[in-house]
Amino acid sequence: MTYTFSLSQADYLNFQLFFASTVQNARTQRKNSQIMWTVFFLLMAFNFYAEKIFFPAVVFLVFGVSWAIFYPMYAKNRQQKHFEKYINTFLSEKFDKVCTITIDDQIIHTVEENYESKIALSEVKQVYETGDYFYAHLKSGQTFIFPRHRIENINALEDQLRDIAAKNQVNFTEMTDWKW
């Protein structure tokens, strides 16, 4: 089956955000940063309180509680801006270029403006389904991004991706309620 579509800056950004949210190392790093700074602020507040210096104790206490509450939103916003800058710097030439992908029994054949490739289906490592996209992650680290809203026969694509996952004995992970 052949699929023709193009990817926008938003498609690349959603992929980067999705992948960052699923990688355990990135989630652990964000959580550790939140905990480390919260503990630091609270220890400083306790230290000043123990010394009976109340104004800095209250300030550090407010910083500590505020950091614990607002850091997740700050980190997400900062990471999104980082990915936007990265995508605009390194992937802008790929925006809105027509891509034709043909999936048959053995290969995924991709044709873009100045690029053509054939990849064996056995190279598929993981398939993800979100509310707006399908991602076929390869062993080489590359990922095919299939935007649901730009592919006409999305049900046929879903069936093919499920078949690929079953044949290669890899996970087809449904995360249809995923949000950044």
Automatic annotation (TrEMBL):
<feature type="domain" description="YcxB-like C-terminal">
    <location>
        <begin position="103"/>
        <end position="160"/>
    </location>
</feature>
<keyword id="KW-0812">Transmembrane</keyword>
<dbReference type="InterPro" id="IPR025588">
    <property type="entry name" value="YcxB-like_C"/>
</dbReference>
<keyword id="KW-1133">Transmembrane helix</keyword>
<protein>
    <recommendedName>
        <fullName>YcxB-like C-terminal domain-containing protein</fullName>
    </recommendedName>
</protein>
<dbReference type="Pfam" id="PF14317">
    <property type="entry name" value="YcxB"/>
</dbReference>
<feature type="transmembrane region" description="Helical">
    <location>
        <begin position="34"/>
        <end position="50"/>
    </location>
</feature>
<keyword id="KW-0472">Membrane</keyword>
<feature type="transmembrane region" description="Helical">
    <location>
        <begin position="56"/>
        <end position="75"/>
    </location>
</feature>
